[in-house]
Amino acid sequence: MGKYNRVLLKLSGEALMGNDSYGINPSILSSYAMQVKEVAELGVEVGIVIGGGNIFRGLSGLSKGVDRVKGDQMGMLATVINSLGLQSAIESVGGKAKVFTATKMEPIGELYTKAKVLEAFKQGFVAIIAGGTGNPFFTTDTASALRGVEIEAQALLKGTRVDGVYTADPEKDPSAIKYDELTFNEAYEKRLKVMDLTAFTMCSENNLPIVVFDMNTEGNLKKLVLGEKIGTLVRN
User: Fold this and answer.
1) Is residue 1 part of a domain?
2) Based on the number of CB atoms within 10 Å of its own CB, is 122 exposed (0-12), middle (13-18) or buried (19 or more)?
3) Can you spell out the DSSP letters for 5-55?
4) I want to staple 226 with a disulfide (CB 3.0 to 4.6 A). Which of 2, 88, 102, 133 is the partner?
5) Bridge partner list, 232
6) Residue 171 located in a structural domain
7) 7 touches 157 (CB < 8 A)
8) What is the CATH classification number for the domain harbouring 19?
């Protein structure tokens, strides 16, 4: 075994688009599925939370006249669509995955509880936890921090299109410098956008390290769980 035995993997909805402008890019989805299956076969227990920004983002609905609560609920449903897509992709490459939802949604997925997820891990399943926290006004960043703490993950791995945390957005500023490691306090003081503040505080208070890395480069997830220095590590 490598560095981690149990992780919470946070996947960006936007990253699922690849170079498309909307929806789920089949090649990105397939790549994610293969990478997750690969680490699960190493014996790593993997919980996954996916965003829904590739389909709908609650806050963006406000400008279109959508009520914030209903907008956030639409966003939660978008995460369920992404979760079902990832489950299907993992199964299509020979892996095992179960979808758990924050609110009752049988037969789409089982209602989430920590005990159910831990039992799924024992049976060799990847646990995809959909629907955010089940409450409006909370992001999927916060959901991933909450679920990571709940299932006692050793780290929250935030898979994005960028290979770590930078002094500025590297997609907009070519002179941005990457950090290899940061403390939670340093990231807060420098106002670096690692995760939203609620999620960030929850990880810090519960001593859950965050690793921000490029999930769109195949093989990175495996390298990371085996202990290779990939991305940016944020910890107390």
Assistant:
1) no
2) exposed
3) SEEEEEE-HHHHTTTSSSS--HHHHHHHHHHHHHHHTTT-EEEEEE--TTT
4) 2
5) 212
6) yes
7) yes
8) 3.40.1160.10
